[in-house]
Known about the structure:
By secondary structure, the chain is of the alpha+beta class. The protein has five helices and three strands; from the N terminus they run βββααααα. The radius of gyration is 19 Å and the shape is flat.
Amino acid sequence: xxxxxxxxxxxxxxxxxxxxxxxxxxxxxxxxxxxxxxxxxxxxxxxxxxxxxxxxxxxxxxxxxxxxxxxxxxxxxxxxxxxxxxxxxxxxxxxxxxxxxxxxxxxxxxxxxxxxxxxxxxxxxxxxxxxxxxxxxxxxxxxxxxxxxxxxxxxxxxxxx
Length: 161
């Protein structure tokens, strides 16, 4: 159960095993826990261990910790003045270097369904799990990636053999 100091406690919790790997006598499990809060927030995290129960517990602990971190960060944002970090100079288009990586794949816009489908297809061809790669590289669900992040993941997958 979440701590009583957090008003954003969860209303729903779901844990799934997303991978099981075996290498001889060694076996590893990867579980994903998703917490849905009363305020509508959704937080997901992975856990990995050599038993299913330990992986499940680890993913639940990681999701709870992530929720508490986000809660603390939102409290800090509320107590800060909007002028605390105000820039002294606002960059104009002439000041900004052209960042092709930012433009490639849609930048900060959400990833398109076609991009998500492509990642899943390439990952499957490479014998990998797209969700696990998303968590490993970006710490979030595949569906939560931005266009730029998913494009990076596509390039990484195409480069791996």
